[in-house]
Write a structure and sequence with these properties.
The structure holds 2 protein chains of 2 kinds. Chain A is mostly helical. Chain A has 12 helices and no strands. Chain B has 2 domains: 3-43; 48-282, MetI-like (MetI-like fold). Classes of the chains: A mainly alpha, B mainly alpha.
Chain lengths: 291, 285
């Protein structure tokens, strides 16, 4: 009996250890491939060259155009998702009826359940033609449509996590504010938002991290032309799109051209890893504050 | 207008801004669904569901992609459910206070934030190249299993945590061992919650595109896979392929394939929500 218990416990332990192996595997593979890559390409060139053309005859390995593409689409997405998401969170927390809140939250979650390839189609086939009516010189592939649609996708993440943060603010603060004769608007912006600020920041960081790693929307709608620009109307390329482009083309495994996807991958991993850890650290700190 | 009136007015205006913002996302979703239905529903017939892909848009179908998606769902479930549920049980019941458990927890939290395409890079090296699985269904399923593992672990833990202490103590008092308690009390009591999490995780897996493209899943597959070692395509990759073509006829095909993908996704989410509600209602501790 005792033996059986021990065996089961070790099996369960091994399952849990798979998650550690996954992390080790990711870091190891990205690390090994990156070392191979940087034997052939200097690290200084990688972070300072302003052109990314590994698939051309005249090769340049500057990651900056891909990073700028990623940051541009992410910035647009956050500009869309942050105001809307925050207003929704405040509205649901302070204004909306309890039953309305209960129905609307699962509905908003549908937005997060739609596969991203579907959002990509939406950006390319619906949003871009619509925007072109107002901005005639906009390209068929551009950062703006992709960013806007990505913003709609990550909006529920911000609204839901921010609402949780607002909900966690002690009731006494809210009641004190009402007791002073404040309106709901004043209470929301002058008392609740500052009190929940760290939780809201966490939600925004997680949303940024999601946008940085998002692939299919930008692969379909933002183009495949690495370009160091802040112009949202022209085709660009993000880190994730580049990985998809090389993987779906016929570049032979093991070549320097192919290994560029690991160099791009490790750049992406470093970005999201930092963002996730900052948010985790903030979350732990702010949980302690209220408990 | 006095200051107080002015503040009250602002307060009311914000209320309508709030309602507008709440519905803006849903409105976009509605516009999009209607657009997709108008474009795609005419293309949706038995021929479309049962044909192989083709150079000619009007003859092309989604059979291999649809079969691939079903295969991926089943094989991923077979791999990810036992691993995820076991890991969840371990974290919640066994290693709760150990230092290793807290490392595990931070690690799982981190993994949940790793972009899906990075899992693709892991899969193409480990499963496709080192283990020699190439662009097979098994390589794809293993990759997606690792991707959804954190989701299953987290929901298993939450479901187990919702089981009240009294049940556990009652079982121990009757002389049951730890595993007997888990097997006969904890797991049956938390099965609804675990199942909900598993279905949501699987619905995420079948919507994934990027990691499967990276491990080498094909855009053009002219056969229905019969074993896990076969090459494959899935619906999202088929959609991506059709969207990327310049011809309008293929965009219509993409819209029709999106309808199929959304029906499957929403169906799974619906089942998960239904189970969650039923489970919450039935079990009142």
């Amino acid at each position: 009996m005792k033996l059986k218990e021990k065996i089961i416990e070790s099996l369960l332990f091994l399952s849990a250890a798979v998650t550690i192996l996954t992390t080790v595997g990711i870091i190891w593979i990205l690390g090994v491939q990156a070392v191979k890559f940087f034997k052939e390409v200097s690290f200084i060139d990688f972070i300072t060259d302003t052109q990314w053309t590994p698939l051309f005859t005249e090769k340049h390995f500057g990651i900056l155009p891909l990073v700028s593409g990623t940051l541009l689409t992410t910035f647009i997405a956050v500009m869309v998702a942050l105001p809307i998401g925050l207003i929704v969170a405040i509205y649901l927390n302070e204004y909306a009826h309890k039953s309305f809140r209960k129905t609307i939250k699962p509905l908003l979650e549908i937005l997060a359940a739609v596969p991203t390839v579907v959002y990509g189609y939406f950006a390319l086939m619906v949003v871009t033609p619509f925007l072109q009516k107002f901005i005639p010189d906009m390209s068929a592939f551009n950062a703006l449509s992709a960013g806007i649609v990505m913003g709609i996708m990550i909006m529920p993440l911000i609204s839901s996590l921010s609402e949780d943060a607002l909900y966690a603010v002690p009731r006494s603060l809210k009641e004190a504010s009402y007791g002073m004769g404040s309106t709901r608007l004043q209470t929301s912006f002058k008392v609740m938002l500052p009190a929940a600020s760290s939780g809201i920041i966490v939600s925004v960081i997680l949303a940024i991290s999601r946008a940085v790693g998002e692939t299919m929307i930008v692969a379909i709608a933002a183009g495949q032309q690495p370009r160091l620009t802040a112009n949202p109307l022209v085709p660009i390329e993000t880190i994730t799109t580049y990985i998809v482009q090389v993987s779906s083309g016929d570049v032979a495994h093991g070549t320097i051209e192919y290994n560029t996807i690991f160099a791009a991958g490790i750049t992406l991993f470093v970005f999201t890893f930092l963002l996730n850890n900052i948010s985790y650290w903030l979350k732990k700190r702010y949980q302690e504050k209220y408990e | 207008m006095s200051n107080a009136d002015w503040n009250r007015l602002k307060d009311n205006v914000f209320k309508y801004v709030g309602i507008a913002c709440t519905f803006v996302g849903l409105l976009m979703l509605a516009i999009f669904l209607i657009d997709i239905l108008i474009k795609g529903v005419g293309r949706l017939d038995w021929q479309f569901l049962s044909s192989l892909p083709s150079r000619m848009a009007s003859k092309a179908g989604i059979l291999p992609a649809l079969a691939g998606t079903m295969w991926i769902m089943v094989v991923t479930a077979v791999i990810a459910i036992p691993l995820g549920v076991s890991a969840g049980i371990y974290l919640e019941e066994y290693g709760k206070k150990s230092r290793f458990a807290s490392i595990l927890e931070i690690n799982i939290n981190n993994l949940a934030g790793v972009p899906s395409i990075i899992y693709g890079l892991l899969g193409v090296e480990i499963f496709s190249r080192v283990m020699g699985l190439g662009g097979s269904l098994l390589a794809g399923s293993l990759t997606l299993a690792l991707l959804i593992l954190p989701v299953i672990i987290v929901s298993t833990r939450e479901a187990i945590r919702a089981v009240p202490k009294t049940i556990r103590e009652g079982s121990f008092a009757l002389g049951a061992t730890k595993w007997q308690t888990i097997q006969h009390q904890i797991l049956p009591a938390s099965a609804g919650g675990i199942l909900t999490g598993v279905i949501l995780a699987l619905s995420r897996a079948i919507g994934e595109t990027a990691p499967l493209i990276v491990i080498g899943a094909l855009a053009y597959v002219a056969f229905v896979p019969t074993t896990p070692m076969d090459d494959f395509s899935v619906l999202p990759i088929q959609i991506f392929n059709w969207v990327s073509r310049p011809q309008k006829e293929f965009h219509v095909n993409a819209a029709a394939a999106i309808i199929v993908l959304l029906v499957v996704t929403f169906l799974m989410n619906g089942i998960a929500v239904y189970l969650r509600n039923r489970w919450q209602k039935k079990v009142k501790w």
